[in-house]
Specification:
150 residues; mainly alpha
Length: 150
């Protein structure tokens, strides 16, 4: 995503235009596009400020914003629900299709998390491979096969 030009550059461009310079001449002089110089001059005329506008979509206006409470209620009721199941429930109930990653970002912004709590018991099963098997006298080494020479 692009960034706004600095306040200093905006002031210099507008100062050049204010001293009876054309917008295109200001753009050539400062190495910006002519449309940038035109927008800066129009912004000062409209809003009276050189501060850049916020870049991007205003927060809270996405297509999922009206359904935050619906999704949070489902997650609180069924704590172990998958994001694909949430997407299916949203489509079935409200007819809105959303990707699971979009739902995940929405729930994170709403303060929900999917981290396991430290108070949960660990799994009763141990490792599924022999990498943590004991090594000692009478057991073969995991790293190297037994030597034939000796």
């Amino acid at each position: 995503m692009g960034r706004a030009y600095s306040r200093d550059l905006r002031e210099r461009i507008f100062g050049y235009i204010a001293r009876d310079g054309s917008r295109r001449a200001a753009a050539r002089h400062f190495g910006v596009s002519p449309s940038t110089a035109v927008r800066i001059a129009a912004q000062v005329a409209e809003r009276g400020t050189l501060e850049p506008r916020r870049i991007g979509r205003p927060p809270g206006r996405g297509k999922l914003a009206p359904y935050v409470n619906f999704l949070v209620e489902i997650v609180e009721a069924v704590g172990d629900i998958a994001l694909t199941e949430l997407a299916a429930a949203l489509e079935a109930e409200h007819g809105v299709r959303a990707h699971p990653s979009s739902i995940s970002r929405l729930l994170i912004r709403a303060g929900m998390t999917y981290k396991k709590s430290p108070s949960r018991r660990r799994s009763a099963t141990g490792p599924r491979c022999g990498l943590n098997a004991p090594i000692g006298p009478g057991t073969a080494s995991r790293a190297w096969p037994a030597s034939r020479t000796g």
